[in-house]
Design goal:
Blueprint: H1 2-12, E1 35-39, H2 43-53, H3 60-83, H4 88-94, H5 96-113, H6 119-126, E2 133-137, E3 141-146, E4 149-154, E5 158-163, E6 167-172, E7 177-181, H7 190-200, E8 202-203
Parallel strand pairs: 5-8
Antiparallel strand pairs: 1-2, 2-3, 3-4, 5-6, 6-7
Helix pairs in contact: 3-5, 4-5
């Protein structure tokens, strides 16, 4: 009896399943209104984005100043126990909190003086370059999908954009940014993208 009822419901359309919303759809927008970009970010594109966001810190004079400051801080940390009439060994046994804090400070200072070795590799690992990105840009805002991460951002969530011959960098109001490689922009949609960006965001 249940099988017959199901068959009749199916034929009448009453039992048709309700379609579920695809998390990667355009949320009701006309595809012509959306610049839909899918890509795997390349390591050199991430490095370029990081470089243009840190132009000042990448200048040789600024790097030298920062290393000098870190070096002086490291020397201070190294001699601090002795300045307090103790040793690192005494701090380890009697003041483990001070040992851990100033020991970490000393190691961090040495790491910065050495030029932060391996930082670019760590940055690439943290940004999961092996996971496809999808950035949908429309008059409503910017929808971002990166693996399980899905964000629907308004234009006022971004402060500005920067551009090079190969990438577009979208800077949020915080410290994070998103990199959009120009190679991934669908054919014929570059002008539409530029119009949206110039209308909604400040160019830097």
């Amino acid at each position: 009896m249940d099988g017959l009822a199901a068959k009749l419901a199916k034929e009448s359309g009453m039992g048709a399943p309700v379609p579920t919303q695809n998390p990667n759809d355009l949320n009701g927008l006309d595809p012509r209104e959306v610049v839909d970009v899918r890509f795997f970010l390349k390591p050199e594109e991430l490095d370029e984005a990081a470089a243009i966001r840190n132009v000042k810190s990448n200048q040789k004079s600024h790097k030298a100043l920062m290393r000098t400051i870190c070096g002086l801080g490291g020397v201070y940390a190294a001699f601090l126990p002795y300045m307090k009439g103790a040793t690192w060994s005494i701090w380890w046994h009697h003041r483990p909190d001070a040992f851990i804090f100033w020991g970490a400070f000393l190691l961090l200072s040495i790491y910065n003086v050495l030029g932060q070795p391996g930082i670019m590799k760590l940055n690439r690992m943290a940004n999961r370059l092996d996971v496809e990105r999808r950035i949908c840009i429309s008059h409503r805002g910017i929808d971002i999908t990166h693996g399980r991460l899905r964000q629907q951002k308004q234009w006022n969530d971004f402060s500005f954009f920067q551009e090079t011959p190969t990438i577009i960098l979208l800077q949020t109001n915080g410290a994070s940014f998103w990199t959009l490689p120009k190679r991934a922009i669908p054919a014929g949609r570059g002008d539409q993208l530029q119009t949206l960006l110039n209308a909604k965001l400040r160019r830097r």
